[in-house]
Inverse folding.
């Protein structure tokens, strides 16, 4: 179903028609009736009559307005056959409300009714058409309503297309060609054309339509070839044993032609001249209806004389009506079909050949991009009878097959074209021509593929449905473009099927189209009929585009025409490249009134085009601005999204790194602190021990334990270094701090070792009380400094953690730098503490030196007979082996005082040694 919002197609108008049908009572969302009607107000019959009356004026004004007239869509309902009635096909599902409105009610077994029962579709549909023709409408009446006006337009130089659309077995072929005594639109149109051209035919065969809308002059040999071909074709139908009526049953139409021929003797004289040119070949056929009026034909026609549609009075009145003065007309016809997406010439192929064996025709574009069927047979006809014969030949070649719905179903789209060459008076070299065309297209019927059992029928049905679907898409796209002029136009998919490509010109301003929708009232095909009607509802909304014939090129060509050599306007395709721009002729030769008229038309055209371009420019500008804004906004959003993602990623990455760093640092510092605590505790314990043991016992004291090298710690720092080396500059700063800390630690270790050395020295005998007190003081000071150092290290750790937290919270380098500066300060303080410690140790060293000197002096004052002094670090038990004399010397006393047992208190030592 159509999705367009702006149009009234398929619009629910339940509110409007509620009075007619009643509502569901339960406030159901779905309407019971869907109104399917043109978006614009359709013309009333009165309006149509007025339009018909005004004739050319109406035509002119419509074109000047730029073509705002809507496409006409006629509906024809065929009667039910007896067999169908017996089958119960008549269920009242098709109801004509008035000349324009049709109401469809879903029969009980239809898909539509099932959908309606499920509440997903309405079961009543209302459609509006240009005019509805019921089952009782005769062929003549239908012709009057539809084709008659078109014939007049074509003879005035316009291009027209009439095509039938509908499901299979709905009466399309009947409408176009007719059966039996009921001639269809096409034979009637042919009769009408020749009736109007009575006495105005150009019988010479030297002008031929070529390409899309061009005319070509033939040379004598080409004329001869054309005559032979034409005679051969017409002879095919002149089988003496077979009358027209017997073959086709178009007796009524033949009778029309006969009547018209009998009343137009002048025309025969023209045709007779041409027959003479043909050297007598096929004279009996070429001389019009008289030529084929064999006894049997005439008899049949005379028998049917009661049902003649046109009487001679009306014909004589209408002959020559509305035709340009002095212009003569040459009528050419062609007939081809589109079968399984291949084009076949119906006038060229022997009927015995199957469609697939016939050579297909090519569809080409001329230099203006207009499609035309290459090598298509065009036959000049000089009477309705000849045209009718050509139609019969083509019909014999057409693809028909018996389907379950129609025993004689068209399996192809057949296209019959009548081209009228308007030959202006003058000698041949001065003659110029225009061309107009009436195309009648009998479309194959849409059908359900599943109903087709045979493979060939199935393939045909597929191709038929596809091409009809493409036609529907083209019409939808055209309507969309017309309804949304401010928006960029949709591409109309003309090229998606051969059918739409062939008909393209009639939808693109080269002419006008008119649609006949055929339906049958059978309940069994209700769903298909509904779809066909929905499709046609879209077509009713189409407006004819501005005719290309109002365009500047056309007007200029009109002005140029008399001055141009006719042959130059009918060049072959190959010669057309050369062009003829520089041969426009002398415009001073034109009639001033014609020039003024042309100027007015040109002015209006310029104004129209200017308005069109301005509107287009405005809409293009608006669209470009809108699209640019959209793009910019999209880019902005994209950038900010990317930025956010990047930021989140970087933050996450650095957070991870900082966490790792934090953990490593924490581990490292806690380990360091533990180690230091251990060392300090050890040192303190040792010092206490020394203090309690006294100076004499220092000899036996084991050296202080070495500060254990901490491989774990080093490894940790190495890991830390490796983890930090890849980080950014902030982490580099942290590394630097850590390196400094390592350095500090190394220095600390060194100092500690030095301190221990001095402690070892302190264990030398005979320290004086002052020296010991001083050393104790210094050591206490050193311990304090160590404690201070430890506190500093802890603070530094805290500071570093704070710095890390600062890094986590805010990636800004500034804050990190602050934190690192604070860490630097702490380090500086630590350095200072270390210097102080160093100074203290120096003092200790100096004291020790003094002490050593004192000891040396003491030794010097000792009597020479005295035994040598025992080593400073003699084992504790060795004191027992000394001599009694040695035991009484002051040095021995000092040594004794340092021995662990009995533990002497420092105060007696200080009392005995006096510095
Ligand atoms: N208006 C009418 N009056 C009387 N009989 C009709 C009318 N329209 C159609 N018929 C008959 O209905 C039958 C089917 O018509 P027709 O073959 O024209 O259908 P179709 O739409 O061309 O089918 P298909 O698409 O299969 O070719 C024919 O027997 C035809 O004579």
């Amino acid at each position: 179903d159509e999705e367009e919002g702006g149009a009234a197609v398929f619009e629910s108008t339940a509110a409007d028609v509620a009075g007619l049908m009643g509502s569901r009572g339960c406030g159901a969302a779905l309407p019971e009736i869907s109104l399917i009607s043109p978006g614009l107000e359709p013309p009333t019959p009165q309006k149509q009559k007025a339009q018909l009356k005004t004739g050319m004026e109406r035509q002119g004004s419509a074109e000047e307005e730029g073509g705002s007239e809507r496409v006409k869509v006629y509906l024809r309902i065929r009667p039910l056959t007896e067999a169908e009635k017996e089958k119960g096909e008549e269920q009242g599902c098709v109801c004509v409300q008035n000349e324009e409105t049709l109401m469809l009610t879903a029969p009980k077994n239809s898909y539509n009714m099932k959908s309606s029962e499920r509440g997903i579709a309405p079961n009543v549909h209302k459609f509006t058409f240009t005019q509805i023709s019921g089952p009782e409408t005769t062929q003549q009446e239908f012709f009057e309503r539809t084709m008659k006006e078109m014939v007049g337009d074509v003879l005035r130089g316009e291009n027209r297309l009439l095509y039938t659309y509908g499901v299979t077995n709905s009466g399309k072929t009947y409408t176009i060609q007719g059966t039996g005594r009921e001639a269809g639109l096409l034979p009637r149109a042919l009769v009408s054309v020749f009736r109007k051209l009575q006495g105005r035919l150009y019988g010479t065969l030297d002008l031929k339509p070529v390409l899309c809308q061009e005319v070509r002059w033939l040379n004598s040999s080409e004329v001869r070839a054309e005559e032979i071909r034409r005679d051969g074709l017409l002879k095919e139908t002149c089988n003496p044993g077979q009358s027209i009526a017997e073959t086709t049953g178009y007796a009524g139409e033949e009778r029309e032609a006969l009547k018209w021929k009998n009343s137009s003797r002048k025309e025969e004289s023209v045709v007779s001249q041409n027959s003479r040119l043909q050297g007598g070949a096929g004279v009996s056929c070429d001389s019009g209806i008289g030529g084929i009026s064999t006894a049997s034909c005439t008899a049949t026609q005379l028998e049917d004389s009661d049902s003649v549609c046109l009487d001679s009075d009306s014909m004589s009145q209408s002959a020559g009506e509305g035709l340009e003065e002095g212009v003569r007309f040459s009528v050419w016809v062609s007939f081809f079909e589109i079968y399984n997406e291949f084009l076949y010439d119906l006038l060229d192929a022997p009927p015995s050949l199957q469609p697939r064996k016939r050579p297909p025709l090519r569809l080409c574009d001329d230099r203006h991009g207009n499609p035309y069927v290459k090598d298509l047979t065009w036959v000049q006809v000089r009477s309705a009878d000849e045209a009718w014969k050509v139609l019969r030949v083509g019909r014999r070649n057409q693809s028909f097959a018996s389907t379950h719905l129609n025993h004689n179903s068209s399996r192809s789209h057949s296209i019959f074209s009548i081209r009228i060459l308007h030959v202006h008076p003058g000698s041949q070299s001065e003659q110029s021509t225009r061309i107009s065309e009436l195309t009648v297209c009998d479309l194959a019927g849409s059908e359900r593929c599943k109903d087709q059992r045979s493979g060939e029928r199935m393939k045909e049905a597929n191709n038929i449905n596809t091409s009809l679907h493409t036609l529907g898409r083209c019409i939808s796209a055209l309507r969309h473009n017309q309804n949304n002029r401010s928006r960029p136009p949709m591409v109309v998919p003309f090229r998606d099927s051969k059918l739409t490509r062939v008909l393209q010109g009639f939808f693109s301003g080269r002419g006008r189209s008119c649609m006949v929708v055929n339906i049958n009232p059978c309940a069994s095909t209700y769903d298909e009929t509904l779809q066909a009607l929905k499709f046609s509802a879209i077509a009713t909304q189409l407006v004819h585009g501005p005719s290309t014939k109002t365009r500047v090129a056309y007007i200029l060509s009109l002005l140029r025409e008399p001055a141009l050599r006719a042959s130059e306007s009918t060049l072959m395709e190959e010669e057309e490249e050369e062009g003829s721009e520089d041969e426009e002729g002398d415009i001073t030769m034109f009639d001033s009134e014609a020039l003024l008229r042309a100027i007015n038309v040109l002015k209006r055209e310029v104004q129209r085009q200017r308005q069109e371009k301005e509107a287009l420019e405005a809409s293009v500008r608006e669209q470009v601005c809108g699209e640019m804004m959209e793009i910019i906004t999209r880019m902005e959003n994209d950038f900010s999204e990317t930025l956010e993602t990047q930021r989140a990623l970087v933050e996450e990455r650095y957070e991870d790194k900082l966490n790792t760093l934090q953990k490593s640092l924490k581990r490292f510092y806690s380990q360091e602190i533990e180690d230091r605590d251990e060392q300090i505790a050890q040192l303190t314990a040792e010092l206490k021990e020394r203090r309690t043991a006294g100076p004499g016992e220092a000899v036996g004291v084991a050296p202080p334990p070495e500060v254990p090298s901490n491989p774990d710690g080093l490894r940790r720092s190495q890991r830390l270094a490796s983890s930090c080396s890849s980080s950014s500059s902030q982490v580099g700063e942290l590394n630097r701090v850590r390196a400094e800390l390592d350095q500090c630690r190394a220095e600390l270790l060194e100092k500690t070792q030095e301190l221990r050395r001095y402690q070892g020295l302190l264990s030398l005998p005979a320290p004086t009380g002052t020296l010991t007190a001083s050393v104790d003081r210094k050591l206490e000071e050193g311990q304090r400094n160590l404690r201070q150092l430890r506190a500093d290290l802890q603070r530094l750790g805290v500071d570093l953690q704070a710095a890390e937290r600062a890094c986590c919270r805010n990636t800004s380098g500034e804050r990190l730098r602050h934190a690192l500066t604070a860490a630097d300060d702490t380090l500086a303080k630590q350095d200072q503490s270390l210097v102080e410690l160093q100074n203290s140790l120096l003092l200790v060293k100096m004291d020790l030196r003094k002490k050593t000197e004192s000891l040396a002096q003491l030794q010097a004052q000792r009597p020479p007979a005295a035994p040598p002094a025992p080593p400073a670090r003699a084992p504790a038990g060795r004191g027992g082996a000394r001599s009694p004399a040695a035991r009484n010397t002051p040095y021995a006393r000092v040594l004794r005082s340092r021995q662990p047992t009995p533990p002497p208190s420092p105060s007696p030592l200080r009392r005995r040694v006096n510095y």
User: Anything to note?
Assistant: The pocket of adenosine-5'-triphosphate is lined by residues 78-79, 166, 168-174, 179, 406, 408-410, 444-445, 518 (CB under 6 Å).
